[in-house]
């Protein structure tokens, strides 16, 4: 086992947090979603890779300095290493630590949602995104395409198209084509953009009326 793997394994042994979720209830789309959302960004507290990155993140957790952000980044590292169980536990710890900080908790949930989606758990991912957006005081612009992606992956294609339509209503010149996906969705993977392109094609074939 590599050094980062050993360190992450020790974190797993020390963590007893379990996570659970119920099937999410998705609300109907609103007309527009114009707002930027600072919570919707990958949590990165340390730049680096490999042994040094993991060691620095573990130290930050131990010292309590930006511990939530360090825990989320460590969870991301665990996820990329295929250690899904550890990543889930770390995200659970981060949510518990951030419970008193609404904006931070929203960001943890947004990040956790992407981890879950990439583990093939679209329903659980959608649950985290719903919780993140549900406690926002605005209508975040990331919501329509992200919900559309998760719903499409779940086979709820009509609902996915309805949510994609909300993105088009908000910014027609950006979302009525797939040409802008690279700029609009920089953190998305190619397979995720490809799934959303399928939603866009379904929307273009039969744009739903509003309301």
Give your account of this protein's structure.
The protein is an all-alpha fold and 211 residues long. It has 2 domains: 1-17 and 37-140, Serine Threonine Protein Phosphatase 5, Tetratricopeptide repeat (Alpha Horseshoe); 142-211, no CATH class. It is 63% helix and 0% strand. It is elongated, with a radius of gyration of 18 Å. The model has no long low-confidence stretch (mean pLDDT 92). 42% of the residues are buried. α1 packs parallel to α2 (50-63) and α2 (50-63) packs antiparallel against α3 (67-80). It is built from 11 helices and no strands. It has helices at 3-14, 50-63, 67-80, 84-97, 102-118, 122-134, 143-153, 157-170, 172-175, 181-184, 190-205.
Features of this protein?
about 210 residues, mainly alpha, Serine Threonine Protein Phosphatase 5, Tetratricopeptide repeat, about 0% strand, elongated
Strand content is under 5%
String of helices and strands:
HHHHHHHHHHH
Number-wise, the strands total 0
CATH third-tier fold name of the largest domain: Serine Threonine Protein Phosphatase 5, Tetratricopeptide repeat
CATH architecture of the largest domain: Alpha Horseshoe
What would the average pLDDT be, to the nearest integer?
92
Low-confidence stretches: none
Describe the SSE topology:
Elements: H1 3-14, H2 50-63, H3 67-80, H4 84-97, H5 102-118, H6 122-134, H7 143-153, H8 157-170, H9 172-175, H10 181-184, H11 190-205
